[in-house]
Amino acid sequence: MGRIVCIANQKGGVGKTTTAVNLAAGLAMAGNRTLLVDMDPQCNATGAVGSVPLPHHPLVGDSQISECLAETSVENLLLLPGSRSFHDVDQLARSEGSEAEKLRNHLSDGLRDYDYVLLDCPPSIGTLTQAALGASTEVLMPIQCEYFAMEGLTQMIHVIRRVMQQTDGRLTFGGILLTMYDPTLELTHEVDQEVREFFGDIVFDSVVPRDVALSESPSHGKSVYQYAPRSRGAFAYTQLCMEVLGRD
Q1: Is 27's pLDDT higher than 90?
Q2: pLDDT score for 209
Q3: Which of 41, 124, 178, 200 satisfies CB 3.0 to 4.6 Å to 207 for a cystine?
Q4: Of the candidates 221, 218, 222, 223, the residue with the CA atom closest to the CA atom of residue 236
Q5: CA angle 108, 110, 114 (to 5 degrees)
Q6: What are phi and psi of 16, to 5 degrees?
Q7: Average pLDDT for residues 40-44, to the nearest whole number?
Q8: Burial 137-157 (b: 16+ CB within 10 A, else e)
Q9: Of 173, 81, 150, 159, which Cα lies nearest the Cα of 127?
Q10: How confident is the model at residue 162 (pLDDT cuts 50, 70, 90)?
Q11: Distance between CA atoms of 56 and 60, rounded to whole angstroms?
Q12: Given a cut of 90, is residue 57 above it in pLDDT?
């Protein structure tokens, strides 16, 4: 089994889906067999690579994950689409006990044939996110460079540590990524300094800037590499991709 990276943060709007899509595309373009899994009921990752949500979530029922995969326009990159089915989302969200374990096992069983699997999680620390953490080998947490960047991190890290204990150390902290980075703002530098002083080496050197190309590319169903390969956003995710590969 390759590396399974859970992209998680309980706050919304911090660049989770942008990171999941573009990091997955970058890893695939580097020649790695890569799978992007959309676990967010909003299905933004699904649309961002030019696909459409499924009528029913692949993680509900007994269907094999391999039967539900969709091709993307990026070589080596496959997608497990999400679903907006209220019934399926509710069923996943209410999973407890044996059902939650079944969800984790179902997820793990379908991820064995890839060099990299990236799980795009909803902005919460609910069952879906915890199931993704339980099936992963590492967690990557994007943090927006804003005043409330550290808000809620303690709770998120508590959940991550609990899952680490439950998985006997299989889950590790892959890194923290600073997003929407604006070097002209003093606040950005304050957040940067505070996060790096608190978390140390687990913070990626790479930062993701505010870039209109990153905002526009999902509406075209493309990664930033395809939409604007010379943009600041494409360069930033290339740097991040190199760091992730370097931590193998």
Answers
A1: yes
A2: 97
A3: 178
A4: 223
A5: 100
A6: -65, -55
A7: 91
A8: bbbbbbbbbbeebeeebeebe
A9: 159
A10: confident
A11: 7
A12: no
Can you tell me the mean pLDDT for 115-133?
Answer: 88
Confidence of residue 115 (pLDDT cuts 50, 70, 90): very high
| pLDDT over threshold 90, residue 62 | no
Q: How far apart are CA 17 and CA 31, in angstroms?
A: 21
For residue 54, the SS3 value is: coil
Q: Which tokens is 146 given?
A: 């804003």
What is the pTM (predicted TM-score) of this model?
A: 0.92
Distance CA 15, CA 27 (A): 18
Q: What DSSP character marks residue 202? A: G
For residue 61, give both structure tokens: 């029922």
Q: How far is residue 146 CA from its own chain's centroid? A: 20
- Nearest-5° angle of CA 48, CA 131, CA 161? 110
Is residue 193 pLDDT above 70, yes or no? yes
Nearest-angstrom CA–CA distance, 206 and 201? 12
28 contact partners, CB below 8 Å, separation of at least 6 = 34, 74, 75, 76, 77, 116
Angle between helices 153-166 and 127-135 (to 10 degrees): 50
Tokens of 208: 């993701």
